[in-house]
Amino acid sequence: MDQELILKASFLEQHAKESEQNLEMVRQQIAQLTEFLEHISSLADSSDKEMLASLGKGVYVKSSLAEKKLFVEVGAGVIVRKTPEETKKVIESQITRLNEVRVQLSSQVDFYTHNLQELIHEIESQTRRNG
Fold it and tell me: Which of 96, 124, 111, 103 is nearest to 30 (CA)?
Protein backbone atom coordinates (compact mmCIF):
# COMPACT_ATOMS: atom_id res chain seq x y z
CA MET A 1 0.00 0.00 0.00
CA ASP A 2 1.25 3.46 -0.88
CA GLN A 3 2.41 5.33 2.25
CA GLU A 4 1.98 8.65 0.45
CA LEU A 5 -1.74 7.98 -0.02
CA ILE A 6 -2.12 7.07 3.63
CA LEU A 7 -0.34 10.25 4.71
CA LYS A 8 -2.50 12.30 2.36
CA ALA A 9 -5.65 10.66 3.76
CA SER A 10 -4.50 11.40 7.30
CA PHE A 11 -3.86 15.02 6.34
CA LEU A 12 -7.34 15.36 4.79
CA GLU A 13 -8.99 13.72 7.79
CA GLN A 14 -7.20 16.07 10.20
CA HIS A 15 -8.23 19.16 8.21
CA ALA A 16 -11.81 17.92 7.90
CA LYS A 17 -12.01 17.49 11.69
CA GLU A 18 -10.50 20.93 12.31
CA SER A 19 -12.95 22.53 9.88
CA GLU A 20 -15.86 20.69 11.53
CA GLN A 21 -14.76 21.93 14.97
CA ASN A 22 -14.47 25.50 13.67
CA LEU A 23 -17.87 25.17 12.03
CA GLU A 24 -19.41 24.05 15.31
CA MET A 25 -17.84 27.01 17.16
CA VAL A 26 -19.25 29.41 14.56
CA ARG A 27 -22.69 27.81 14.88
CA GLN A 28 -22.54 28.26 18.66
CA GLN A 29 -21.51 31.90 18.28
CA ILE A 30 -24.39 32.51 15.87
CA ALA A 31 -26.82 30.90 18.34
CA GLN A 32 -25.47 33.01 21.22
CA LEU A 33 -25.66 36.23 19.20
CA THR A 34 -29.19 35.38 18.04
CA GLU A 35 -30.25 34.83 21.65
CA PHE A 36 -28.53 38.09 22.65
CA LEU A 37 -30.35 39.89 19.84
CA GLU A 38 -33.65 38.64 21.27
CA HIS A 39 -32.68 39.98 24.72
CA ILE A 40 -31.83 43.39 23.24
CA SER A 41 -35.18 43.40 21.42
CA SER A 42 -36.96 42.57 24.67
CA LEU A 43 -35.17 45.42 26.42
CA ALA A 44 -36.06 47.85 23.64
CA ASP A 45 -39.73 46.83 23.71
CA SER A 46 -40.06 46.65 27.50
CA SER A 47 -41.49 49.40 29.66
CA ASP A 48 -40.06 47.86 32.83
CA LYS A 49 -37.75 50.07 34.86
CA GLU A 50 -36.16 47.22 36.80
CA MET A 51 -34.18 44.26 35.59
CA LEU A 52 -31.65 41.64 36.60
CA ALA A 53 -28.18 42.58 35.40
CA SER A 54 -25.57 39.87 34.99
CA LEU A 55 -22.32 40.30 36.88
CA GLY A 56 -20.97 37.14 35.24
CA LYS A 57 -20.63 33.48 36.22
CA GLY A 58 -24.41 33.18 36.73
CA VAL A 59 -24.58 35.97 39.33
CA TYR A 60 -27.19 38.71 38.86
CA VAL A 61 -28.08 41.92 40.63
CA LYS A 62 -31.43 43.69 40.59
CA SER A 63 -30.98 47.09 38.99
CA SER A 64 -32.99 50.08 37.86
CA LEU A 65 -32.97 51.31 34.29
CA ALA A 66 -32.29 55.03 34.27
CA GLU A 67 -32.28 54.99 30.46
CA LYS A 68 -32.22 52.45 27.65
CA LYS A 69 -28.94 53.52 26.07
CA LEU A 70 -26.35 50.79 26.34
CA PHE A 71 -22.62 50.93 26.91
CA VAL A 72 -21.05 48.85 24.15
CA GLU A 73 -17.39 47.89 23.93
CA VAL A 74 -16.23 48.47 20.36
CA GLY A 75 -12.70 47.12 20.77
CA ALA A 76 -9.44 47.95 22.54
CA GLY A 77 -11.38 48.71 25.73
CA VAL A 78 -13.25 51.60 24.08
CA ILE A 79 -16.87 51.89 25.23
CA VAL A 80 -19.51 53.91 23.39
CA ARG A 81 -23.17 54.57 24.12
CA LYS A 82 -25.67 53.06 21.71
CA THR A 83 -29.42 52.74 21.58
CA PRO A 84 -30.85 49.22 21.57
CA GLU A 85 -31.63 49.68 17.86
CA GLU A 86 -28.02 50.65 17.07
CA THR A 87 -26.80 47.71 19.13
CA LYS A 88 -29.15 45.35 17.27
CA LYS A 89 -27.67 46.52 13.95
CA VAL A 90 -24.16 45.74 15.22
CA ILE A 91 -25.25 42.27 16.35
CA GLU A 92 -27.08 41.61 13.07
CA SER A 93 -23.92 42.58 11.19
CA GLN A 94 -21.88 40.16 13.31
CA ILE A 95 -24.40 37.39 12.65
CA THR A 96 -24.24 38.10 8.90
CA ARG A 97 -20.43 37.88 8.91
CA LEU A 98 -20.52 34.67 10.95
CA ASN A 99 -23.03 33.15 8.53
CA GLU A 100 -20.61 33.92 5.69
CA VAL A 101 -17.83 32.18 7.64
CA ARG A 102 -20.21 29.26 8.34
CA VAL A 103 -20.85 28.82 4.61
CA GLN A 104 -17.09 28.90 3.86
CA LEU A 105 -16.33 26.37 6.59
CA SER A 106 -19.14 24.12 5.44
CA SER A 107 -17.65 24.18 1.93
CA GLN A 108 -14.23 23.31 3.37
CA VAL A 109 -15.69 20.35 5.27
CA ASP A 110 -17.42 19.13 2.11
CA PHE A 111 -14.19 19.55 0.10
CA TYR A 112 -12.03 17.63 2.59
CA THR A 113 -14.66 14.92 3.08
CA HIS A 114 -15.12 14.43 -0.66
CA ASN A 115 -11.37 14.23 -1.29
CA LEU A 116 -10.91 11.88 1.66
CA GLN A 117 -13.61 9.54 0.34
CA GLU A 118 -11.98 9.50 -3.11
CA LEU A 119 -8.62 8.74 -1.53
CA ILE A 120 -10.10 5.91 0.56
CA HIS A 121 -11.58 4.37 -2.59
CA GLU A 122 -8.19 4.64 -4.30
CA ILE A 123 -6.46 2.98 -1.33
CA GLU A 124 -9.08 0.20 -1.31
CA SER A 125 -8.59 -0.33 -5.07
CA GLN A 126 -4.83 -0.61 -4.62
CA THR A 127 -5.28 -3.01 -1.72
CA ARG A 128 -7.55 -5.30 -3.81
CA ARG A 129 -5.12 -5.26 -6.74
CA ASN A 130 -2.10 -6.01 -4.52
CA GLY A 131 -3.86 -8.40 -2.20
Answer: 96
